[in-house]
Amino acid sequence: MLPPIDLGYIAEQLDELGEELCARGEELDPPPETLLLALRRMIEVLQTADGAGAADFGHQIQGLTGSDPELILSYGIQLLTQLAGTAERMDLPQHAQALERLTLPLSLWMLRRGCELSYPEPVVNALAHLANHLHHAESLIELYGLMNEILESIGLERALASESGQSNRPCHVLLINRAIVATRTRQPELMDSAFRSIADYLPDEAPAFFREGMSQIEGLDYPAAARTVMEHYFTAWCTGQRLH
């Protein structure tokens, strides 16, 4: 199930997940309660700023905090990531995954109010985890749309260039995962758009991706139109040809 893009939902999840963390983590530094309190205060600020309307959201954040919205978003993601790491250290992997997943609705809520995402890695991890647990086409199509929102907010070409030579490349990973999700939707239009991005931005990996994709759909009951899209890119990238 995809999380609602709603601050109230995030606050409810923090209350629910934080109860056990606080009960078991009093000796940790910082204690989970400190991180949770900071997140709750941040959500209150965001809710107050949102009361003036999306058009004035950035000015409201500046007035309330003295910081840009992008810094507040990065701060929130860092708090959630730190809290997820605390859950891992407490041997609560499900709590850790649930906390990291909250970076997605938080980021999308902010992006829809004109913010930019400068710390995408936890959000990309959250998207990948959701993709692994979704099976219905409607949910996968919705997830594909959320992936597009994240990619658009990052500034793809600039982000990919900045990732060159790095071991962790979240935009690179997101492009691959989006193409996998598109394949699983069985929607030819989504597949073609996602595959074109692989061809344009990740040409070194395109042959392996389309070869694997072709092997995955063989024997499965894919619609003819979706199969045709995969066959087109497989032929272009795995038989000595190239798309132009």
Description:
With 244 residues, the protein is mostly helical. The chain folds into 2 domains: 1-118; 120-244. The protein has helices spanning 7-24, 32-50, 57-65, 69-89, 93-101, 103-111, 121-133, 137-154, 156-163, 170-185, 188-201, 206-217, 224-238. The two termini are 38 Å apart. The relative contact order is 0.08.
Rounded to the nearest angstrom, the distance between the terminal CA atoms is: 38 Å
Order of helices and strands: HHHHHHHHHHHHH
Query: In what range is the share of β-strand residues?
Result: under 5%
The helix count comes to 13
Alpha carbon gyration radius: 20 Å
Q: How many discrete domains?
A: 2
> How many β-strand runs?
0
| Structural shape | globular
Give the biggest beta sheet.
none
Mean pLDDT: 91
Helix-strand category? mainly alpha
Estimated helix fraction: over 70%
Low-confidence stretches: none
